[in-house]
Amino acid sequence: MDEQEIGILRLGLDFSQPLYEQIVEQMRGAIARGEIALGEKIPSVRELAHGLKINPNTVMSAYKELERDGLTETRRGQGTFITSAQEKVDDFRSEWAEQVIDEFLGKMENLGYTVDDIQLVIQRKKEDKE
Amino acid sequence: MDVVVRCQDVKKTFGTRTALQDITVKIPSHQVVGILGPNGSGKSSLFRLILGLNQPDSGEISVLGRKPGWNNNHQIAYLPDRARWYGDHTVEGAFQWGMDLLPGFDASKANELADWMEIDKKMRVDGMSKGQEARLMLIMCLARNVPLIVLDEPFTGIDTPSRERIIDALIDRVTEREQTILISTHEIYEAEGLFDSVFFMNEGRVELSGPAEELRAKHGSMVELVGKMSHGGRGR
Q1: Looking at beta carbons, which residues of chain B come within 8 Å of A57?
Q2: Which terminus of chain A has fewer Cβ atoms in its 10 Å neighbourhood, N or C?
């Protein structure tokens, strides 16, 4: 998967997966990790569509999703920007983390793990890393 | 969903050869639609029915809500798979011809596209490379303000730089969009990300269709799907 640099974004698409989700996920990640600075202008729909060689409708729906997340804002006549409010990014990040954990717990419970079992597994992973 | 082309049990044979069998589809409008499949799978035959150049043996077809034919074709810009019309023209001559004869032809749009696709307007068509000529043919279609653009194999036999320019021009056309663009191709090339919807044809049938993103989630990339199809798999 080749990464493309389009303006301030670095994105790489895998054409065997839905494209819209990949754009949303990669941009969410980059914003949450602070790789894209607050208040930065992001490429226009047209620029990103050209850069990635994809349908502008796909880019448009990804941008709408990020705006719903509170991570970007559109200023009329100026384009789309990363939010300048750190707390919006923090809120999104913790909500997202919460979702990922709930999903993880759900799957583990499905396998018959209790929360105590899970804690033990995590403890072991932590020791492996150290 | 608005529909641009509707086929109900459409059959078409040429002599003993069956080109299309029992095609029943609704092609959505205001999208980029890929008609994909190997050579001889029926893509061009379907397009010829859409243009009213051939009539189905049985079944019903409607295009933009009407029966296909000469009195519907002012609404359609068509790039046939074999087209060499403008031999003794310059590019400017071809544009003049377009203004005189092609409904909805927008000369300023054509000039803009020519600059952007790096086509010299003084150039004679019979001195063009295959890629340059393909770009000109595409400009003649994309410069028209009509509800339906039908491109039969626009990428075949064209070098990579020309293909990329064509895809960029299509991306821009979608950004401005009021149109439906039907594109047939047997090789996906760089067009993979361009389609809103795709219809996979094989042996005169539509074997699989749907929004491109849904098909990706279920089956992987369009390139992989075409590969599976042309090796006899049904991709279901």
Answers
A1: 31, 174, 196
A2: C
Q: Residue B77's domain is classified under what CATH number?
A: 3.40.50.300
**Number of domains chain B contains:** 1
The domain of B17 spans 3-232
Question: pLDDT tens for residues A43-68?
Answer: 999 999 999 999 999 999 999 999 99
Percent of chain B scoring above 90 in pLDDT: 58
Instruction: For B215, name the nearest residue in chain A, comparing CA atoms only.
Output: A18
One-letter amino acid at A7 equals G
- β-bridge partners, A4: A11
Cα(B28)–Cα(A127) distance, rounded to whole angstroms? 56
B195 contacts on A by Cβ (under 8 Å): 55
ipTM of the complex: 0.82
Measured CA to CA, the distance from residue A10 to residue A42 in angstroms comes to: 11
In this prediction, residue B173 carries a pLDDT of: 85
Confidence band, pLDDT 50/70/90 cuts, at residue B235 = very low
Q: Which of A17, A53, A54, A63 to mutate to test the interface with B (most CBs of B within 10 A)?
A: A53
Using the 8-state DSSP alphabet, how is residue B86 labeled? Answer: -
| Highest-pLDDT range among A54-63, B83-92, B173-182 | A54-63
Q: What pTM, to 2 d.p., does this model score?
A: 0.86
Residue B129, number of CB atoms within 10 A of its CB: 11
Cα atoms in the 13 Å half-sphere on the side-chain side of B157? 9
**Which of B31, B164, B213 lies nearest to residue A19, judging by beta carbons?**
B213
CA distances from B95 to A65, B5, B102 (A): 42, 29, 10
Contact between B171 and A19 using a beta-carbon 8 Å cutoff: no
Amino acid at the residue B175: T
d(CA B79, CA A89): 48
Does residue B65 sit at the A interface (CB-CB below 8 Å)?
no
Instruction: Collect all residues of chain B within an 8 Å Cβ-Cβ radius of residue A54.
Output: 171, 193-194
- 3-class DSSP state of B8: strand
The span from the CA of B45 to the CA of B13, in Å, is: 10
